[in-house]
């Protein structure tokens, strides 16, 4: 319990209230509904074969089938109305590929949504670091959206074929005794496939959720700002503040003259005079050697 309490304390569960986390939670829930309604299905239909000789009739032929709908392996025994013998008949079709593909996508969507929610709640900062997490999330979300489209369409077609193959009126045509007019064959009740219809509906709901989630994940990637020309990568160095203007370069040089630079005072008295002596321009004149002599 201490570990659980620490995880709860460190978690950022407010992200679930945001569209990014809320839609991911819906994906997690509806993925469960999708693969559970399909993967846990089992159905049954019932027929009756009434022979001209009532003792040879079978008025309660039950045919059971279930996921993954390998109907060619489902069999039942029907009377031949000829001396009490029975024949073993098999249903037609194998629709396991579309059903298993649909369930597999549902299971992986469930696992990925759960993992993504854990990342959002506990390591959201690392998820957004350098935008690599959102970019990977966007690619995976796009792949799952496409997979839900393919699997839902494939399973919708497979379910239609399952309904046709398990229609009692169609199955009765496989029984040879029903080809004779003196024998009466009829269906008692059809299989209930409402759960399978719901699974197809959940599949397309998941498709809408994953497509809708693409926009909110795309906003986290930084690609929108990059396309608009306003995105600055985190690795790029920002320009340094203009500190030089505050520390001296923007101030006037006290040694600068009116022309903006240092102007030496060439007006000082100094240089060579006509007598060939060097006048340094000091107030005190050098002592003349002639006076000393």
TrEMBL record:
Region (Disordered): 234-293
Domain MARVEL: start-end pairs: 15-222
Biased composition (Polar residues): 281-293
Transmembrane segments: 25-44, 101-124, 136-157, 200-218
Keywords annotated in UniProt: Glycoprotein, Membrane, Transmembrane, Transmembrane helix
InterPro entries attached to this UniProt entry: Marvel, Synaptophysin/porin
Name this protein carries in UniProt: Synaptophysin b
Locations listed in the record: Membrane
GO cellular component, one term: synaptic vesicle membrane
PROSITE patterns for the chain: MARVEL
PANTHER family in alphabetical order: SYNAPTOPHYSIN (PTHR10306), SYNAPTOPHYSIN B (PTHR10306:SF32)
Membrane-topology descriptor: Multi-pass membrane protein
Family: Belongs to the synaptophysin/synaptobrevin family.
